[in-house]
Design goal:
single chain, 5 strands, elongated
């Protein structure tokens, strides 16, 4: 997900996992959508027109609660990411990102530059964080990916302040 911070220059702020929902805040508040989504890899996207959702909510007002629950979930994700950026060391932030995004084989596709942008780090800070996790034998590096090799160790690092 990108957000225009200065002018129209997009800043990567989050990488959603399967099932991630976007567009709820703009739809529910009747405000312009500020976030842009771009696939990091081959993806299947399901798009529901806002008019169809509004019509559904008119017919079935009891569905407002689940839509607000989805919106709440996205708000909590945004606040968690902000709190991590403000309070955690780079290696803990990277560990959390990897645990969250890993597929069933422990693989997270992407370049160090992409991960650095997601985490709000310089490339050199990112390289130090990767090296630290490799030295701890929690991850291995591969071409265009990082691989979790010791998930319990990585989860312990997630909680480092």
């Amino acid at each position: 997900l990108t957000f225009p911070l200065i002018g129209n220059e997009p800043v990567t702020v989050h990488r959603g996992e399967p099932g991630f929902w976007i567009g709820d805040a703009a739809l529910l508040s009747a405000q312009p959508r500020m976030i842009t989504i771009c696939a990091a890899k081959r993806s299947r996207v399901y798009c529901v027109q806002g008019s169809a959702i509004r019509a559904l909510l008119e017919r079935r007002p009891e569905y407002w609660r689940p839509f607000y629950a989805l919106s709440y979930s996205n708000t909590m994700t945004a606040l968690r990411v902000l709190a991590e950026v403000l309070s955690l060391r780079p290696r803990a932030r990277l560990a959390r990102l990897l645990v969250r995004l890993a597929d069933t084989d422990g693989v997270v596709a992407g370049s160090n530059e992409e991960f650095a942008r997601l985490l709000g780090m310089t490339r050199s800070s990112m390289q130090r964080a990767v090296r630290s996790l490799v030295d701890d034998k929690a991850i291995e590096t591969g071409y265009g990916q990082l691989v979790i090799v010791d998930r319990p160790a990585l989860e312990r690092i997630c909680n480092e302040a």
